[in-house]
Structures are given as structure tokens and as C-alpha cells.
Write a structure and sequence with these properties.
The protein contains 15 helices and 17 strands. By secondary structure, it is α+β, with helices and mostly antiparallel strands. It folds into four domains: 160 residues, Beta-Lactamase; 107 residues, 2-Layer Sandwich (Beta-Lactamase), CATH 3.30.450; 85 residues; 132 residues, Histidine kinase-like ATPase, C-terminal domain (Heat Shock Protein 90, 2-Layer Sandwich), CATH 3.30.565. Helix 13 packs parallel to helix 14. The longest helix is centred in the middle third of the chain and has 56 residues. It is elongated and about 160 Å long. 17% of the residues are buried.
Length: 527
């Protein structure tokens, strides 16, 4: 390897050494710094008895008393040849231990390859890597250092003198700063994602300045305002609150800010948009407090619930309509019960009373009148029982759906006016919910009642079929029929349609004058 011209220098122990002329770009010491070093050395002269004109006396003194760790190592073997006091104190090794070690002993395993590359550059006369390095102390602690060095010949060996600057604190600070910046970046990224993913207005209120930040997207969607500046201050924002809601909002804010333990809140209010309309707002937030419990910041989200409020009002109106319809149905049912009692039972009981009164005054007809009275009373009991059964909710849990419908069919056949037939499959009633069974029974009851009263039929058939998808109820009669397209929907038919609708089913009515009627009900089968 070609070496640059050698230059004689005096180093460390006063011996005359030779060193390569460095390709140094360093500027010479300033006059001020040179004078300070001379002054420092002159003080040491008096302490240690060093003469200023003693050959080589400056270099050993500066090396040993340098506040920065320094050493000389063999460029061929990487063995430590000389270390100063600062190196011994910083790394924790004694001078004797150092002189038995190699440069790689204070390097972490992961930096050995990089160290070798750096040494190759130094051998070639190229500038070393400008970076911080990891060094190992005796106690296992890893520190970050910067290294400055020069090549020279020492005791006939090609060596390098280096000085170490501990930059661990700076590297850690820089790393913490990078982590903090990354955390801020991720936090801002998450904030932007949340702001874009939600329709809420994200806001941040500085209680010390009374200024509020609001994300632009949510500001437009929730408050209907394109610029936050007019409502940036809390007082300007309060001016847009609906007057009736303002005291409530002010009271909540006052209580939250002055409370010592409560850290969350939510409130509903109306806010005036730019177009003058008021939007219903649901607002909730979290309070940040200092170590003394004083609130200094609020973070929250506001949501436009105007549509929800409209839907709630519509549902309320529907509930009122349903309640009114229920009342009307109850009144109509009471009217029907009254008519049944007045036209049938009351007439029978009135006639029976007349028979009994005649029996008391006419001994000759007494037995016959009592017999007729007994018959009327029995008939009245039957009418009352029938009326009671039609009003009472059936206990399908005791009889089951199939047996309950068969009981209806038996009652119709007992009148000997209509021949009723019930056809059904082997249905697992346990797979039907209670409401389905009750609905099927009530529809059958209503339909058979219409057949008896209005159809003028002599025969009716009830079929109950079951498939994987639906349960089907079919009721047919051979009565006088009607025009199913123009028939007026009475209470009975509406009752059937409403029951089926509540179970997501379908109703079909096929009828023509003189051709009877067929009612088909399909309900989704719930396994």
C-alpha cells in the first residue's frame, strides 16, 4: 500500500514518531482557543513541574488530561495500545484491562460488519463514516458516541488516535423527538380517518382561551356552517343556540367546568344553521383536568339528530293512531257484545220472565210454561258460553293449535247447518312460536264465523299445510260468494290482514258471486 509522505511529530511519551500527512480539511485553531490552551498548560507547568520548552511535553499532558475519552489502537490487530483517564472512567475498564482488549470488544455484535467497512475506508485514506456509533461499557450499558480520529505511526506501528464524544443523551432526545413526531402524525392520521369516517362534528375547546376548533367536514354536515371563524369563540356559538335550550346548555357547561369529579357529559339542543333553520344536535364530550382538578380543555363530538327527531315524532304519531284505532276497536267490540246480549240473550230472558209470570197466574199452563222457560234458559246459557268463548284468548298451550281448530269444527258441525272438515298434516307445533299459533287460530275462528253468518254455505273445508318455508292455512266454502275486487273491507277482514301483516305473511282472497270463497294465508315458517 502506498503511503503518503511521512512527517516527524512528538507524541505522548516524548518520543519522536512519524505519521502520514493527513488530508485534513480542519481549520487551524483560532488565536483565542490557542491562547486558552497555552494558559491552561502554563498552569499545569507550575503544578507538575513541566517546562514549556521541554520537547514533547505538551502531547502526553493533553492526551492524559483530555476530558474526552481517547485511545490509540493498532490498525492491523485492532488492539488497544494506549488509553487516557477519561476512557477508563467512562467505560469502566481499568487501564490494564483495556490494554488486553481489542476494538471489537467494546462494539455490539450488530455493528461489527459496519466497523470493518469503516476501517477499510480508513486504510484506503478515505474519510470514515460520519455517524454515531454504539459502544459497550463494562457494565453492559450501551452508549451512543461520535468518534474523531487520525492515523499515525506509534512505536513503529500503523495506529489511529481517536477521541470519543458521548452523545447518548442527544441520540435519545432525537429518538424521543422522532417517536413523538410519529405519534403526533399517527394521532392526526387517526383523527382525520375518524373525522372522514363519521358524520359527527369533532371539536376541541380550549377553556383558557374560550376558543373552539371544529373539523371543517363535520362543521358543514352538522352545523351547516362553512367557516368556523364566526363561532370560534364560545360566546358567539351560544348566540346560535335556540333560546329555550340556552339556559339548559349554559347550566350543563357551568356544572361540568366547575365539577371536580365529573368528566363526561351529553346534551341535546337546537342550533341555528346558516340558512336560519334549527337543527337538533346531540353533543357529548370529555373534560381534561390538570393535577389540581381544574378543567382546561374539552374534546367531544356533535351529531345532527334532526332526522331521528322527525322519525321519533312520526313513530309517536303512529302510536297515537294505533292507540286511537285500539280504542275504536274496543268500542266497536263492546257495541257488538251489547247487540248480542240485547238481541239474543236479553230477548230470551225477557220471554222466559213472561212465561214464569203466566205460570204463577195460570195453574193450568204452569207445567208447559215452566218447560218452555227451562228451554229458553238453556239456550241463553249456550249463547252466553259461545259469546264468552269468542272473546276469551284461547289457551293453545293446553290443547294445541290442531286440537283447538278441531274443537271449532266440532262446534260448527253440532249446529247441523254446515258440514265442516279439517284437513291437516302432521305438524310439529313446537317449531311454531306462540304468536303464530294464536294468529292461525284467530283467523280460522274469524273466517268460520263469517261462513256461518254470511256465506249461506252448506260445506266448508279447513286445510293446514306446512313446508320448509311457509305455513299455509286454506279455508274454502260453497256459499254465495262475493266480488272480491269490489268488496268493502269490514272489521273482520281488516283484522285478518293486520294479524298476517304483523307476522310478515300474505293473505289472498278468491271469490265470485255464486261460487263460494277461498281464503289463503301464508306465514313464514320459523324452525
Amino acid at each position: 500500500m502506498m503511503l503518503r509522505p511521512l512527517k516527524k511529530i512528538v507524541l505522548i511519551n516524548g518520543t519522536i514518531l512519524q505519521r502520514q500527512n493527513p488530508r485534513s480539511t480542519r481549520k487551524p485553531l483560532t488565536i483565542n482557543l490557542r491562547n486558552k490552551l497555552r494558559h491552561l498548560f502554563s498552569l499545569k507547568h507550575r503544578i507538575h513541574g513541566i517546562k514549556p520548552d521541554q520537547p514533547g511535553s505538551y502531547y502526553p499532558f493533553l492526551f492524559e488530561n483530555n476530558p474526552f475519552p481517547a485511545w490509540i489502537f493498532d490498525l492491523q490487530t485492532l488492539a488497544f495500545l494506549k488509553v487516557n483517564k477519561a476512557a477508563v472512567e467512562f467505560y469502566g475498564y481499568s487501564e490494564k484491562e483495556f490494554l488486553s482488549m481489542y476494538l471489537t470488544d467494546i462494539r455490539p455484535e450488530e455493528e461489527i460488519i459496519l466497523l470493518e467497512e469503516n476501517l477499510k475506508r480508513i486504510h484506503k485514506g478515505e474519510p470514515p463514516f460520519q455517524r454515531s456509533w454504539k459502544h459497550l461499557k463494562k457494565n453492559g450499558e450501551i452508549v451512543d458516541v461520535e468518534i474523531k480520529g487520525n492515523n499515525f505511526f506509534y512505536n513503529g506501528k500503523e495506529t489511529r488516535l481517536v477521541m470519543i464524544n458521548d452523545v447518548t443523551a442527544r441520540v435519545q432526545t432525537e429518538a424521543n423527538l422522532i417517536r413523538t413526531n410519529e405519534q403526533y402524525r399517527l394521532a392526526n392520521e387517526r383523527y382525520n380517518i375518524i373525522a372522514n369516517a363519521t358524520h359527527d362534528l369533532i371539536w376541541d375547546w380550549n377553556l383558557e382561551t374560550n376558543e373552539l376548533y371544529r373539523d371543517p367536514k363535520g362543521l358543514v354536515e352538522v352545523y351547516g356552517v362553512a367557516d368556523n371563524e364566526p363561532i370560534k369563540h364560545i360566546n358567539h356559538w351560544l348566540e346560535r343556540i335556540y333560546p329555550d335550550d340556552l339556559p339548559k346548555v349554559q347550566n350543563v357547561i357551568f356544572n361540568i367546568v366547575n365539577a371536580g369529579e365529573q368528566n363526561v357529559f351529553d346534551i341535546e339542543y337546537r342550533f341555528r344553521r346558516k340558512n336560519g333553520d334549527y337543527a337538533f344536535i346531540y353533543d357529548r364530550g370529555y373534560i381534561l383536568r390538570n393535577k389540581d382538578g381544574k378543567a382546561y380543555r374539552m374534546i367531544g363530538a356533535a351529531q345532527d339528530i334532526t332526522e331521528r327527531k322527525k322519525l321519533e315524532q312520526e313513530i309517536l304519531d303512529q302510536q297515537k293512531a294505533i292507540s286511537q284505532a285500539t280504542i275504536n276497536t274496543q268500542e266497536k267490540e263492546r257495541t257488538e257484545i251489547s247487540k248480542e246480549l240485547h238481541d239474543n240473550v236479553n230477548q230470551l230472558l225477557t220471554t222466559t220472565k213472561l212465561y214464569l209470570d203466566l205460570a204463577l197466574t195460570n195453574p193450568g199452563l204452569r207445567d208447559e210454561l215452566i218447560k218452555k222457560s227451562s228451554k229458553n234458559i238453556s239456550y241463553a246459557i249456550g249463547e252466553i258460553r259461545t259469546l264468552s268463548q269468542s272473546l276469551m284468548i284461547p289457551s293453545l298451550g293446553d290443547l294445541g293449535l290442531i286440537d283447538s281448530i278441531e274443537d271449532l269444527v266440532e262446534n260448527i258441525n253440532a249446529t247441523k247447518k254446515i258440514d265442516a272438515t279439517f284437513i291437516h298434516e302432521d305438524i310439529a307445533e313446537n317449531n311454531l312460536i306462540e304468536n303464530q299459533k294464536l294468529t292461525l287460530f284467530r283467523i280460522t275462528q274469524e273466517a268460520l264465523n263469517n261462513v256461518v253468518k254470511h256465506a249461506e254455505a252448506t260445506r266448508t273445508t279447513i286445510e293446514l299445510l306446512c313446508s320448509k318455508e311457509i305455513i299455509q292455512l286454506v279455508i274454502k266454502d260453497n256459499g254465495k260468494g262475493f266480488d272480491s275486487l269490489n268488496i268493502k273491507k269490514g272489521a273482520g277482514l281488516n283484522n285478518i290482514r293486520n294479524r298476517v301483516y304483523l307476522l310478515n305473511g300474505n293473505v289472498t282472497i278468491n271469490s265470485q258471486p255464486g261460487k263460494g270463497c277461498t281464503l289463503v294465508v301464508d306465514l313464514p315458517h320459523l324452525h
